[in-house]
Amino acid sequence: MRIAxxxxxxxxxxxxxxxxxxxDFINDRGxxxxxxxxxxxxxxxxxxxxxxxxxxxHGFELVPxxxxxxxPSGLIERKTYDALLxxxxxxxxxxxxxxxxxxxxxxxxxxMVIEGIEDGDGHFISKVREYIGPDRPxxxxxxxxxxxxxxxxxxxxxxxxxxxxxxxxxxxxxxEAADLIVRIIQDDxxxxxxxxxxxxxxxxxxxxxxxxxxxxxxxYAHEIxxxxxxxxxxxxxxxxxxxVPDVGPSIIVVADNDxxxxxxxxxxxxxxxxxxxxRWYQLPFSVKDAIKQGQDMGKYPIILADHADxxxxxxxxxSTEILQTFLDQKLDKALILYxxxxxxxxxxxxxxxxxxxxxxxxxxxxxTQGPPVKMKxxxxxxxxxxxxxxxxxxxxxxxxxGPSAWIQQDGVSVVVVTAREQPFGxxxxxxxxxxxxxxxYISVKSSAHFRASFEPFAGxxxxxxxxxxxxxxxxxxxxxxxxxxxYPVEIPYDSAPDI
Length: 499
Ligand SMILES: [Zn+2]
Fold this sequence. Notes:
Blueprint: E1 2-9, H1 22-27, E2 30-33, H2 35-40, H3 47-58, E3 61-69, H4 78-97, E4 103-106, H5 120-132, E5 138-140, H6 150-155, E6 158-159, H7 170-187, E7 191-197, H8 214-225, E8 230-236, E9 250-256, H9 259-275, H10 287-297, E10 302-306, H11 321-328, E11 334-340, H12 342-351, E12 356-361, E13 373-383, E14 386-388, E15 398-400, E16 404-409, E17 412-417, H13 427-432, E18 441-444, H14 451-454, E19 460-464
Parallel strand pairs: 1-3, 1-4, 4-5, 5-6, 10-18, 10-19, 11-17, 11-18
Antiparallel strand pairs: 2-3, 7-9, 8-9, 12-13, 13-16, 14-15, 16-17
The chain binds zinc ion.
Zinc ion binds near residues 144 and 145.
């Protein structure tokens, strides 16, 4: 049995002014071809790693094509996408020339938007389908934040999304796809899918799968998965910072050769979620309220998730409201992870460790990110940015924050970086000599992924609404392309029952 595998992963913010180029794919998580994939990803927590591990378990030949991942950012340049797609299809063709292929495993994010193509993932799947024809299976393992469309469900054989946020089950989902593709080829399993789209905004703070209210949603999904005839249930909470027609949460039910069971089950689960829509929505705290509440509880370190400037969602990572507030309140043992500002890093490099720099930090990408903050700070450490992840999300994989500096003014420390990778854990700070566990206040430019590594030592955690382009006050997004009215924007908050 020979299965081709690969993927082009990107979560695209149509609100970000940073275009996504081929260099981003090459420099972010990297662009891997053929055998390089097999050497890099076995055992790692990415779906392609799970495909490789699954192939080993089942003894089939995995034919690696091309795999690449750019950090979330703005629209993908059309020429970049066209080049990646063309190379992928060329490699697929070469793989077929070397011997017959039985199917394809695709590692795609599910919220990819390209210049002129609103449903990037749907387009990619349909091009692979066009090449391999209607009979052979294509399985896709998207992120929990995909904006799913009817096109994908029509073109793929089965879609199996992540079950966790933070995403700690990517390898597991990859293996699940490998298990299912073997059953399709050998045991005559025939997946059929039903998509149920949900017209509401799902607050990030209500999506953490080990906590309520999200845990209940996933428990329900797993209960359905144990029913006869059901192969898989995907809950996708959507990615609201993409202004595309099919933005929003959805359910995908995969059943074995029974379309009416898939439809009925998707309807049952989808309407259960819709009836409880008030539960999945929560206005975030203001920065000051969050600090005050954490102090009142006395639970340190207080962690502020600066989710409106979550670089992991495609923002510039240089918003300043929290830094300014830390300085105004003269907080002690306070840390900002991170501020993207190459100019400040260059100054710090020039001053050297122990030097003092007087400069303006952050707030340079867009006025919405807040004004730059004046600082007179000591350079505590410098780094070229390379490190290894050690937390549950990407343990063992290489990270690179680019040239970076730890600067400190009184009790407030800032890690200034050049690359826009979100702080998944303290691993990079540790390389600079910072002990996150001894801090009182930590601000992370992340929505929830930080939790996998920070939660074990956090005293309290607040998702805060600081001024930045990815506001969680969803009415401000002013979607122009969305095809339905959404709760709680056009459909009023109070219209939903409090259950
Ligand atoms: Zn995600």
